[in-house]
Amino acid sequence: MEPNFYSRYPGFQPNPSAPAVDEFARLARHMRWKHGSKAYKRGWASFGVSEFSKHYGTEASKLQNWQSLCREVGLSEPKTITQCKKVYRVFSQLLRLMLKISKALAKVHVNIIDLIDARRTGAPVTIFRRVQELRQYTQKTQKIFPKEVAKQDGFLKALLRGIF
Asked: 0.70 exceeded by the pTM?
Protein backbone atom coordinates (compact mmCIF):
# COMPACT_ATOMS: atom_id res chain seq x y z
CA MET A 1 0.00 0.00 0.00
CA GLU A 2 1.33 3.43 -0.75
CA PRO A 3 2.94 4.80 2.42
CA ASN A 4 0.57 7.75 2.67
CA PHE A 5 -2.74 6.02 1.87
CA TYR A 6 -4.16 6.27 5.38
CA SER A 7 -2.52 9.64 6.02
CA ARG A 8 -5.16 11.09 3.70
CA TYR A 9 -7.76 10.21 6.33
CA PRO A 10 -6.97 12.10 9.55
CA GLY A 11 -7.95 10.31 12.73
CA PHE A 12 -8.37 6.91 11.08
CA GLN A 13 -6.30 4.16 12.69
CA PRO A 14 -5.92 1.21 10.30
CA ASN A 15 -6.12 -2.38 11.47
CA PRO A 16 -3.90 -4.32 9.02
CA SER A 17 -5.19 -7.72 10.17
CA ALA A 18 -8.88 -6.92 9.66
CA PRO A 19 -10.61 -8.26 6.54
CA ALA A 20 -10.47 -5.73 3.69
CA VAL A 21 -14.25 -5.31 3.40
CA ASP A 22 -14.56 -4.62 7.14
CA GLU A 23 -11.64 -2.21 7.13
CA PHE A 24 -13.01 -0.26 4.18
CA ALA A 25 -16.47 -0.15 5.77
CA ARG A 26 -14.86 1.28 8.90
CA LEU A 27 -12.97 3.86 6.82
CA ALA A 28 -16.15 4.77 4.94
CA ARG A 29 -18.01 5.28 8.22
CA HIS A 30 -15.12 7.36 9.55
CA MET A 31 -15.23 9.54 6.43
CA ARG A 32 -19.06 9.52 6.38
CA TRP A 33 -19.17 8.26 2.82
CA LYS A 34 -22.63 7.14 1.81
CA HIS A 35 -22.65 3.64 0.30
CA GLY A 36 -22.71 3.97 -3.49
CA SER A 37 -21.74 7.65 -3.55
CA LYS A 38 -18.95 8.90 -5.82
CA ALA A 39 -16.70 9.45 -2.80
CA TYR A 40 -17.42 5.89 -1.61
CA LYS A 41 -16.65 4.41 -5.03
CA ARG A 42 -13.45 6.43 -5.41
CA GLY A 43 -12.38 5.46 -1.90
CA TRP A 44 -13.12 1.78 -2.56
CA ALA A 45 -11.13 1.81 -5.80
CA SER A 46 -8.19 3.56 -4.17
CA PHE A 47 -8.31 1.25 -1.14
CA GLY A 48 -8.48 -1.87 -3.32
CA VAL A 49 -5.58 -0.86 -5.54
CA SER A 50 -3.49 0.16 -2.54
CA GLU A 51 -4.17 -3.11 -0.73
CA PHE A 52 -3.53 -5.28 -3.77
CA SER A 53 -0.31 -3.39 -4.53
CA LYS A 54 0.86 -3.76 -0.94
CA HIS A 55 0.36 -7.51 -0.88
CA TYR A 56 1.14 -8.55 -4.46
CA GLY A 57 3.18 -5.73 -5.98
CA THR A 58 2.43 -3.60 -8.99
CA GLU A 59 4.97 -4.74 -11.52
CA ALA A 60 3.53 -7.44 -13.75
CA SER A 61 6.96 -7.76 -15.39
CA LYS A 62 8.57 -9.11 -12.19
CA LEU A 63 8.71 -12.88 -12.11
CA GLN A 64 8.83 -12.91 -8.30
CA ASN A 65 5.46 -11.19 -8.16
CA TRP A 66 3.93 -13.75 -10.51
CA GLN A 67 5.50 -16.59 -8.51
CA SER A 68 4.04 -15.23 -5.29
CA LEU A 69 0.60 -14.90 -6.85
CA CYS A 70 0.76 -18.46 -8.24
CA ARG A 71 1.74 -19.85 -4.83
CA GLU A 72 -1.16 -17.99 -3.21
CA VAL A 73 -3.77 -19.50 -5.54
CA GLY A 74 -2.32 -23.01 -5.44
CA LEU A 75 -0.52 -23.13 -8.79
CA SER A 76 2.95 -24.59 -9.06
CA GLU A 77 5.63 -21.95 -8.98
CA PRO A 78 7.53 -21.29 -12.21
CA LYS A 79 10.93 -23.01 -12.16
CA THR A 80 12.93 -20.84 -14.57
CA ILE A 81 13.83 -17.86 -12.39
CA THR A 82 17.57 -18.58 -12.56
CA GLN A 83 17.48 -18.78 -16.35
CA CYS A 84 15.43 -15.58 -16.50
CA LYS A 85 18.12 -13.69 -14.61
CA LYS A 86 20.55 -14.14 -17.48
CA VAL A 87 20.83 -10.67 -18.95
CA TYR A 88 20.82 -11.74 -22.58
CA ARG A 89 17.61 -13.83 -22.49
CA VAL A 90 15.70 -12.47 -19.55
CA PHE A 91 13.07 -10.46 -21.36
CA SER A 92 11.93 -13.09 -23.87
CA GLN A 93 11.92 -15.88 -21.28
CA LEU A 94 10.04 -13.72 -18.83
CA LEU A 95 7.39 -12.84 -21.39
CA ARG A 96 6.87 -16.50 -22.33
CA LEU A 97 6.70 -17.54 -18.70
CA MET A 98 4.28 -14.75 -17.84
CA LEU A 99 2.08 -15.81 -20.73
CA LYS A 100 2.02 -19.39 -19.39
CA ILE A 101 1.23 -18.14 -15.90
CA SER A 102 -1.45 -15.82 -17.21
CA LYS A 103 -3.05 -18.72 -19.09
CA ALA A 104 -2.91 -20.88 -15.95
CA LEU A 105 -4.44 -18.08 -13.87
CA ALA A 106 -7.28 -17.82 -16.39
CA LYS A 107 -8.40 -21.23 -15.08
CA VAL A 108 -8.33 -20.10 -11.44
CA HIS A 109 -11.53 -18.57 -10.08
CA VAL A 110 -10.88 -16.56 -6.93
CA ASN A 111 -12.45 -13.48 -5.37
CA ILE A 112 -9.89 -10.65 -5.49
CA ILE A 113 -11.05 -9.18 -2.18
CA ASP A 114 -10.66 -12.59 -0.53
CA LEU A 115 -7.20 -12.84 -2.06
CA ILE A 116 -6.29 -9.54 -0.39
CA ASP A 117 -7.78 -10.80 2.87
CA ALA A 118 -5.64 -13.93 2.68
CA ARG A 119 -2.60 -11.70 3.04
CA ARG A 120 -4.21 -9.37 5.58
CA THR A 121 -5.66 -12.01 7.91
CA GLY A 122 -3.92 -15.28 7.04
CA ALA A 123 -7.27 -16.82 6.08
CA PRO A 124 -7.08 -19.42 3.30
CA VAL A 125 -8.18 -18.41 -0.19
CA THR A 126 -11.31 -20.08 -1.50
CA ILE A 127 -10.72 -21.29 -5.05
CA PHE A 128 -13.96 -21.86 -6.92
CA ARG A 129 -14.23 -24.71 -9.40
CA ARG A 130 -16.46 -22.79 -11.78
CA VAL A 131 -16.99 -19.15 -12.68
CA GLN A 132 -20.67 -19.57 -11.81
CA GLU A 133 -19.77 -20.43 -8.21
CA LEU A 134 -17.48 -17.40 -7.98
CA ARG A 135 -20.19 -15.22 -9.53
CA GLN A 136 -22.83 -16.35 -7.01
CA TYR A 137 -20.46 -15.90 -4.07
CA THR A 138 -19.29 -12.47 -5.23
CA GLN A 139 -22.81 -11.20 -5.81
CA LYS A 140 -24.00 -12.56 -2.46
CA THR A 141 -21.11 -11.09 -0.44
CA GLN A 142 -20.75 -7.91 -2.54
CA LYS A 143 -16.96 -8.37 -2.44
CA ILE A 144 -16.49 -6.66 -5.79
CA PHE A 145 -13.19 -5.18 -6.91
CA PRO A 146 -13.63 -2.22 -9.32
CA LYS A 147 -13.43 -3.66 -12.85
CA GLU A 148 -12.13 -0.45 -14.46
CA VAL A 149 -9.18 -0.41 -12.07
CA ALA A 150 -8.51 -4.14 -12.37
CA LYS A 151 -8.28 -3.94 -16.16
CA GLN A 152 -5.30 -1.59 -15.83
CA ASP A 153 -3.20 -3.99 -13.72
CA GLY A 154 -1.57 -7.14 -15.08
CA PHE A 155 -2.22 -9.24 -11.97
CA LEU A 156 -5.75 -8.09 -11.44
CA LYS A 157 -6.61 -8.36 -15.12
CA ALA A 158 -5.54 -12.02 -15.09
CA LEU A 159 -7.99 -12.67 -12.24
CA LEU A 160 -11.00 -10.82 -13.69
CA ARG A 161 -14.11 -12.88 -14.41
CA GLY A 162 -17.54 -11.95 -15.74
CA ILE A 163 -19.53 -11.41 -12.56
CA PHE A 164 -22.46 -9.37 -13.86
From this structure: no
